[in-house]
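Dear H.,

Thanks for agreeing to be a second pair of eyes. The structure we're designing against is below in token form, covering all 157 positions.
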């Protein structure tokens, strides 16, 4: 059963001519898809983090970045991707997870442009755009664990 507050949040019209319920639905699907993508990036690398780190160190060997910094960052990337992916997918601590993912993208963008891999940089810009949309549209994050927890806390008060 929908509470009147939830019904008004879900079904009120937006000022730009888009229906709020459609924006809420689209936001949920975009959030879930990004979460799945990030989760699988991390999950598929978990079994070979040392190999991933070695590959990254080799890619950056002709840059000024020290190998220990590249390897250390590379060890963390799959773990961050996995955690951010799970949180975003389920809409738990969504804003913090999205900002963490955005921060990871900034680090990855710096690295990939340093080695002048412009094709991958373009792909990463798409991720950044999706992160932007999700961060900016967090008010539409109604199909999420965050929203359910928020409602639970309100009922206790």
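And this is the sequence the design step returned. I haven't edited it by hand at all.
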């Amino acid at each position: 059963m929908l509470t009147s507050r939830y019904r008004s949040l879900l079904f009120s019209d937006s000022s730009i001519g888009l229906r709020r319920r459609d924006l809420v639905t689209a936001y949920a699907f975009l959030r879930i898809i990004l979460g799945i993508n990030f989760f699988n990036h991390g999950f598929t690398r978990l079994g070979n983090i040392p190999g991933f780190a070695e590959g990254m160190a080799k890619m950056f060997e002709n840059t000024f970045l020290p190998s220990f910094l590249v390897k250390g960052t590379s060890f963390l990337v799959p773990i961050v991707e996995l955690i951010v992916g799970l949180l975003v997918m389920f809409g738990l601590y969504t804003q913090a997870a999205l900002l963490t993912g955005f921060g990871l993208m900034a680090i990855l963008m710096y690295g990939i442009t340093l080695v002048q891999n412009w094709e991958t940089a373009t792909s990463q810009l798409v991720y950044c755009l999706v992160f932007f949309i999700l961060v900016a549209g967090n008010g539409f994050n109604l199909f999420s664990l965050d929203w359910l927890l928020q409602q639970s806390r309100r009922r206790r008060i």
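Two observations from my side: Helices lie at 4-11, 20-46, 49-59, 67-90, 94-114, 118-136, 145-156. Residues 19-156 form one domain.

Warmly,
E.
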